[in-house]
Write a structure and sequence with these properties.
Elements: H1 2-32, H2 35-114, E1 118-127, E2 135-138, E3 151-153, E4 158-165, E5 170-174, E6 181-186, E7 192-197, E8 204-207, E9 220-223, E10 235-243, E11 252-257, E12 266-271, H3 285-289
Antiparallel strand pairs: 1-2, 1-12, 2-5, 3-4, 3-12, 4-5, 6-7, 6-9, 7-8, 8-11, 9-10, 10-11
């Protein structure tokens, strides 16, 4: 048995020595023999897949880490951009509203410049909730010189008249109210008529129009000035339809108000040339010192 052990140990030693000799020979051949360069290149091709496979787990780990970081970064950037987009959209909405309001004010200013009468700008602050009446509330009242019966118009035409005055607000009766009537004339030929409210904001009716009257669709109606309630020459409505009923003495005529009765926010209070706008109250230091 001891002899077998020694024989096994000698075999291992002989193998080790043989391997050492072969390695030494290969190293010497690789250094001094030129053909070995081709062999090393061939071995490099054979070893490359093994090296790539052995390094694959590490590369996968690095890729996974980068992907996780990139995903988190992209998610964070997307959240930031989404928030910025919402803020910008909100600002755009405000800009659109401000631009529209500026356009309305510009139109109102242009309309005021074309008027011969004195005017004062007022703002709509309330609407009567009663569906059977068409009243609005404006932020000008007795303290601003407003009076009952005063005409109200927007940038496109007449809207109505003041029917109630409070110290700082006033109630206005719109043209479309069924209790309202205004004398008008056809701007094209001067035919007189009376326009009454139909209860709808987009429609007026002309009453007692002779069936043979020269009134056509598209004719502009302006205030006639009769009755001394409304000044002469302001746009009131445009004829939309004229119906002739055989056997009836009067035609059925409808018109659309020129003013934007359901949209206008700023209006003009019309003062006659002889009336004076209220002077602003300026409090002096002496008034402030008085008890």
């Amino acid at each position: 048995m001891i002899k077998g052990i020694f024989s096994s140990g000698q075999a291992v030693n002989s193998r080790f020595v043989m391997a050492l000799v072969i390695c030494t020979a290969l190293m010497s051949a690789d250094k001094y023999l030129e053909p070995m360069q081709n062999v090393r290149s061939l071995l490099g091709y054979l070893i490359t897949p093994v090296q790539w496979v052995s390094g694959l787990p590490g590369q996968l780990g690095v890729w996974a880490e980068k992907s996780a970081v990139s995903r988190a970064s992209l998610q964070e950037e997307n959240d930031r951009l989404r928030n910025e987009s919402l803020v910008l959209k909100q600002k755009v909405q405000q800009m659109v509203s401000l631009r529209a309001e500026n356009n309305r004010l510009r139109e109102l200013l242009n309309a005021a410049e074309l008027l011969d009468d004195k005017v004062q700008v007022a703002e709509l602050v309330g609407v009567d909730p009663d569906p059977y009446t068409h009243h609005i509330i404006i932020n000008k009242g007795e303290k601003h010189g407003v009076f009952v019966g005063q005409p109200i118009l927007d940038a496109q035409g007449l809207m109505g008249q003041v029917i109630e005055v409070l110290p700082y607000t006033s109630r206005v009766l719109l043209l479309a109210d069924s209790n309202h009537a205004i004398p008008v004339l056809v701007n094209r030929n001067g035919i007189r008529a009376i326009a009454v409210g139909s209860g709808r904001l987009d429609e007026l009716a002309l009453i007692y129009v002779p069936d043979t009257a020269d009134i056509k669709q598209g004719d502009l109606l302006v205030s006639s000035g009769l009755g001394s309630r409304y000044p002469r020459g302001y746009p009131v409505a445009t004829i939309t339809s004229v119906e002739h009923d055989p056997g009836e003495p009067f035609a059925i005529v409808s018109a659309r108000p020129s003013a934007q009765l359901d949209r206008s926010r700023y209006v003009l209070l019309v003062f006659s040339k002889d009336s004076k706008l209220p002077e602003p109250v300026i409090q002096t230091n002496e008034q402030e010192e008085q008890p």
